[in-house]
Specification:
The chain is of the alpha+beta class. Helices cover about 40% and strands about 25% of the residues. The protein has three domains: about 160 residues, Nucleotidyltransferase, domain 5 (2-Layer Sandwich); about 90 residues, Nucleotidyltransferase, domain 5 (2-Layer Sandwich), CATH 3.30.420; about 70 residues, Alpha-Beta Complex (Actin, Chain A, domain 4).
Length: about 350
């Protein structure tokens, strides 16, 4: 009862604390923030200069006394102090000044992280001003946000491809029956594009450019019409600025290695799925979520490799944060959820 009264006077939040971006859901307001998980600071003093969108613009462009970093790597905290300041900044940005109480916060975390890493996430949010912190595994949050009826006694598979991790799970009766986490996702795809340009064209490009190439012409399955794109970078041999024209077919080759590993972990989960639930998947298929699921051709590739129907969630980028937001309504019944810490 006391928690219910508190909830009336605080802006409870759901947070998708992703490697690539942070999304915030505020109870009663829907998604109110979506910004890159990037922090820019002075090297010597660690003074924060920019967070989010402004900090991402600085990636690869900072002078020697400034560094732009991603404080989360592979879905876990790599820089505790920077993560705390980033969370504090986002809470302050969306929290209503009219409320006197600190918010309760639900945070989506990779299913494969350790207890130590889970405590680090909770502590960073508590230090940033949260009254209470609850963690929900990202596959479960993504399934809820994608509209999967997780309480049904039938198997459903969710594949959430974020920036740092790919989360694969089969859910039934409100829990995860089989779940695996892979530290290969969107960021690894970008890195593969960077390495492809370096090896084939002796051209160095930044991660923002690699991401742009992946989004604009990247694909993982043959397309009807190949496309082209001009890419600017620095020549390794000359050290001078250089522009080349790249074909979409080449980016498909560049993305092959990380995508093969994602397909393999999906097959691994299917192999460990109990027969009754596996039978359900023949009809219910696989649901994709996360920014990485938007790479062209991934639905077709997974359908070909698994022989199951595959669909992309309606709004794949927001599935996890919508799942954390839905869970906010269930906080008073928290004991009903076995996968929450």
């Amino acid at each position: 009862m006391l928690n219910y009264i508190f909830s009336l006077f605080s802006n409870d939040m759901g947070i998708d604390l992703g490697t690539a971006s942070v999304l915030v859901f505020v109870k009663g307001q829907d998604i109110v923030l979506q910004e890159p998980s990037v922090v820019a600071m002075e090297r010597s003093t660690k003074r924060i200069l920019a967070i989010g969108t402004e900090a991402k613009k600085m990636l690869g462009k900072t002078p020697s006394n400034i560094v732009a970093i991603r404080p989360l790597r592979n879905g876990v905290i790599a820089d505790f102090e920077a993560t705390e300041k980033m969370i504090r900044y986002f809470i302050k940005k969306v929290h209503s000044k009219r409320t006197l109480l600190h918010p309760r916060i639900v945070i989506g975390v990779p299913s494969g992280i350790t207890e130590v890493e889970r405590r680090a996430v909770k502590e960073s949010a508590e230090q940033a001003g949260a009254r209470e912190v609850y963690l929900i595994d990202e596959p479960m949050a993504a399934a809820i946000g994608a509209g999967i009826q997780i309480q049904e006694p039938r198997g459903s598979m969710i594949v959430d491809i974020g920036g740092g991790t790919t989360e694969v799970a089969v859910v039934s009766l409100g829990g995860m029956v089989v779940a695996k986490s892979l530290e290969i996702a969107g960021d690894k795809m970008d890195e593969s594009v960077v390495q492809y340009f370096r090896k084939k064209y002796n051209l160095t490009i930044g991660e923002n450019t690699a991401e742009e190439v992946k989004i604009k012409i990247g694909s993982v399955f043959p397309v009807n019409k190949e496309t082209y794109m001009s890419v600017k970078g620095r020549g390794l041999l000359t050290g001078l600025p250089q522009t080349i024209t790249i074909r979409s077919e080449e980016i498909r080759d560049a993305l092959a290695d990380p995508v093969i590993k994602i397909v393999e972990i999906v097959k691994d989960v299917l192999e460990e799925t109990p027969p009754e639930l596996a039978a359900d998947l023949i009809d219910r298929g696989i649901t994709l979520s996360g920014g990485g699921s938007l790479v062209r051709g991934l639905v077709n590739l997974l359908a070909q490799e698994t022989k199951l129907p595959v669909r992309c969630a309606e709004n794949p980028l927001t599935c996890v944060v919508k799942g954390t937001g839905a869970y906010l309504d269930e906080l008073d019944n928290i004991r009903k959820y076995k996968d929450i810490v």
